[in-house]
Amino acid sequence: MLNEFKAFIAKGNVVDLAVGIIIGAAFTAIVNSLVSDLINPIIGLLTGGIDFSNLFVDLSGTNPASLAAARDAGAPVFAYGAFLTAVINFLIIAWVVFLLVKAVNRLKAATAKEEAAAAPAGPSELDVLMEIRDSLKR
């Protein structure tokens, strides 16, 4: 069983997956910082500083002053603002990731095109087959 486990861990797929998870975690920090530190302030400026995160409906009837106060008091609340903020943040993050992936794909395509142009043009398949035919005739 130990040998099977070693073989499983040594497979390229497992190592690739582990590297992908580590890179993904680092990339998540970058995207979250981009959204929270750069994009959200711009959106806040454009919308007049509207903050949805403190919008809630008090279900206890105690009328707390803020969502934080209601949660500290243990009052049941319907925190629709926090949910709305999470949805908006998700859409912004999804859009940023889409743009980043699109840019990386463009860069990969440009690099592949340059490599293809730089690669020496070898004989075509037809040329090779004709050479083989001619060699067999001799």
Largest sheet: 2 strands, antiparallel
Measured between the Cα atoms of the first and last residue, the distance is: 59 Å
**Strand numbers in spatial order across the main sheet:** 1-2
Helix count, DSSP H or I runs of 4 or more residues = 5
How many domains? The number is 2
In percent terms, what proportion of residues is strand? Answer: under 5%
Average per-residue pLDDT, rounded, comes to 84
Instruction: Indicate the overall shape.
Output: elongated
**Helix percent band:** over 70%
How many distinct beta strands?
A: 2
Give me the secondary-structure category: mainly alpha
Q: Any idea what the radius of gyration is?
A: 29 Å
Helix and strand string, N-terminal first?
HHEHEHH
| Unreliable sequence segments | none
Describe the structure.
- The chain has two domains: 1-48; 51-109, no CATH class.
- The chain is mostly helical.
- It has a two-stranded antiparallel ribbon with strand order 1-2.
- The chain contains five helices and two strands; from the N terminus they run H-H-E-H-E-H-H.
Overview in brief:
The chain is mostly helical and 138 residues long.
Topology:
Elements lengths: L1 H9 L1 H35 L10 E2 L8 H7 L3 E2 L1 H39 L6 H13 L1
Antiparallel strand pairs: 1-2
Helix pairs in contact: 2-4
List keywords for this structure.
138 residues, mainly alpha, two-stranded antiparallel sheet, 2 strands
